[in-house]
Amino acid sequence: MTSTNEPERLHETVMALVVARDFQDGDVVNLGVGLPLECANVLPEDREILLHSELGLLGFGPVITDHTLADPYVTMVGNLPVTTLPGTSFMSHDESFAMIRGGHLDVAVLGGLQVDRHGNLANTQFEGKPAGNLGGAPDLAYGAKRTIILMRHTTHDGSPKILEDCTLPLTTPRCVDRIVTDVAVMDIEGGAIILREFAPGWTPEAIQSITAARLTVAPDVRELSL
């Protein structure tokens, strides 16, 4: 559990906004299950972002919350119904993965159980679970030009999720470029985790206290802004 004395952590919508603010016009972006899906609802209006789903969709819109308006055949990962937009493309499962494996994704936004200083990602198998649920995660994490992990900084019991070395089975090695959590924005470069931004009320020292890996504070580190 988080300490009652610590500063407020970012809401999941704000976390998604932090990720989406850096999408570039024309980017092809795949969103993983969990927190990353929130990015579909906060895309920058001044840029065209093409959302991709391994289920065979490209260029779809926000998640539909009113299920009476949903088309059960138009869903993204997690079986969430989504909006079709002018130009939305439909493709077969193998064509969708050909896009991933062919290096045609600009960004993959995935959840994480653990990330370490080498950029290793563990996000498919909990400790003590006999087998993981890989799905398309290894392909996405490795095939995208840029992999961003969107996750909470610690577990529910307060254990660090950013480590010197992952202890859970790896999903994909050396794939992570950026980590966005409810307290910080960090980049992984050359075996180091660079602290770029911190949530309002937080300090680099406070973030280090809940991080198992050693953080390198960027010279231009700043309070997070949208």
Account of the protein in words:
This protein has 226 residues and is of the alpha/beta class. The chain has a single domain (12-184), classed as Glutaconate Coenzyme A-transferase, CATH 3.40.1080.10. The chain contains 4 helices and 15 strands. The strands form 3 sheets. A 10-stranded mixed β-sheet has the order 6-3-2-1-7-10-12-13-14-15, with helices on both faces. Strands 9-8-11 form a 3-stranded mixed β-sheet, with no helix packed on it. Strand 13 and strand 14 form a beta hairpin. The mean pLDDT is 93.
Count of discrete alpha- or pi-helical segments spanning 4 or more residues: 4
Strand segment tally: 15
Q: So, CATH architecture?
A: 3-Layer(aba) Sandwich
Please bin the fraction of helical residues.
Answer: 10-25%
Main sheet characteristics: 10 strands, mixed
Cα distance, first to last residue? 28 Å
Order of helices and strands: HEEEEEEHEEEHEEEEEHE
CATH superfamily caption:
Glutaconate Coenzyme A-transferase
The largest beta-sheet arranges its strands as 6-3-2-1-7-10-12-13-14-15
